[in-house]
Design a protein that fits this description.
Domain Mannose-1-phosphate guanyltransferase C-terminal: 249-313
Strand content: 25-35%
Family: Belongs to the transferase hexapeptide repeat family.
Pfam families: GMPPB_C, NTP_transferase
InterPro entries: GMPPB_C, Mannose-1P_guanyltransferase, NTP_transferase_dom, Nucleotide-diphossugar_trans
Distance between the termini: 61 Å
Strand order of the largest sheet: 5-4-1-6-11-8-12
Shape: elongated
Domain Nucleotidyl transferase: 2-233
Radius of gyration: 21 Å
CATH superfamily of the largest domain: Spore Coat Polysaccharide Biosynthesis Protein SpsA, Chain A
Length: 331
């Protein structure tokens, strides 16, 4: 069996933050999103591959230097050119050969052990499922109906969901199922795992489900990104910084090297402050601030601010600010 982490998307729903940053390499606590996935693969003792695109390859090459992973790079540079997940799986087969594959979406944060997951694998297709508890929310995903642990119905992004149990982007496809991917694509089917699973069911394929609780995040929006930060950031990580005696830190927070926390600033809880940031007389909580951003005399709550921005004399709530922006009100 091989492990394949899928990180080839361009994450347009999180633009402008992901315009020049691959989503899987966005910071989350003291690590990147993909690091949480990679850590879970370590107990398996399997070969791990990461599938990405040519545009983001340089970022993954830098990240992977001290990691025991191999990159598979699809030759695309733009959203319009990209292979979908199933197309990327076909490319992986052409490079790595047919095998059983554990497939994990690279923006997928989950609470369960992958070893426990594979312990449930019986040689048939296996998917991880989670109850989102909300029919409106379920419309965004592949909705699953079960009979025991067997999948009896699957509908991708239904208008009227039959349940709130959804597929989470963690799958095991056995060798014989990987072998029918070319047929699936040649028939002109949609290039996504949910529609592939629908198609497999229509062909009489047995599919089983591993149901888990606690937490699951699909980092597809600013809200899910910030909620994941609140769940996974359990303690503070503060590097070499300059901090005013009048400033206050409320754990948990991450403050990276070279940051300056000046004046009567309050940082936290649940704040990420990137390298080289300057925060002066400002309150920041439930927010992620990328490197080399300057924030003065402002209140930032539940917001994401990209690198090299300047924010002055503002109150920002539930905002997403692209890189190099300069926003201020008066002096």
């Amino acid at each position: 069996m091989k492990v394949l982490i899928m990180a080839g998307g361009y994450a347009t729903r999180l633009w402008p933050i992901t315009k020049d940053n691959p989503k899987a390499l966005l910071p989350l606590g003291d690590r990147y999103i993909i690091d949480y996935i990679l850590e879970k693969t370590k107990e398996l003792g399997l070969e791990v591959y990461v599938s990405t695109n040519r545009f983001f390859a340089k970022y993954f090459e830098e990240w992977s230097r001290d990691k025991d992973v191999e990159l598979l790079v699809e030759d695309t540079f733009h959203e319009e050119e990209k292979l979908g997940t199933i197309g990327a799986l076909q490319e992986a087969i052409s490079k790595l050969g047919l095998d059983d594959y554990l497939i994990i979406a690279g923006d997928n944060l989950f609470s369960f052990s992958l070893k426990d997951f594979l312990d449930k694998y019986n040689g048939k297709t296996l998917i991880a499922v989670y109850d989102v508890g909300d029919f409106e929310l379920a419309k965004r995903y592949g909705v699953v109906l079960l009979e025991g642990d067997k999948v009896i119905d699957f509908e991708e992004k239904p208008v009227k969901p039959k349940s709130t149990l959804i597929s989470t982007g963690v799958y095991v496809f056995p060798r014989e199922i990987m072998g029918v991917i070319p047929q699936y694509l040649e028939e002109g089917n949609k290039d996504s795992p949910g529609y592939f699973i629908q198609w497999l069911l229509s062909k009489g394929t047995e599919i089983y489900a591993y149901k888990f609780d606690e937490y699951w995040y699909d980092i597809g929006s600013a809200d899910s990104y910030l909620e994941a930060l609140k769940t996974l950031l359990r303690e503070s990580y503060i590097e070499e910084i300059q901090i005013s005696p009048y400033a206050k830190i409320i754990s948990p927070v991450v403050i990276k090297r070279g940051a300056k926390i000046l004046g009567r600033s309050i940082i936290g809880p649940y704040a990420y402050i990137g390298e080289g940031c300057v925060v002066e007389n400002s309150d920041i909580s439930d927010s992620i601030i990328f490197k080399n951003t300057i924030i003065r005399n402002s209140t930032i709550w539940r917001s994401i601010i990209d690198e090299k921005c300047e924010i002055r004399n503002l109150e920002l709530k539930k905002s997403l600010v692209g890189g190099h922006a300069k926003i201020q009100r008066g002096d």
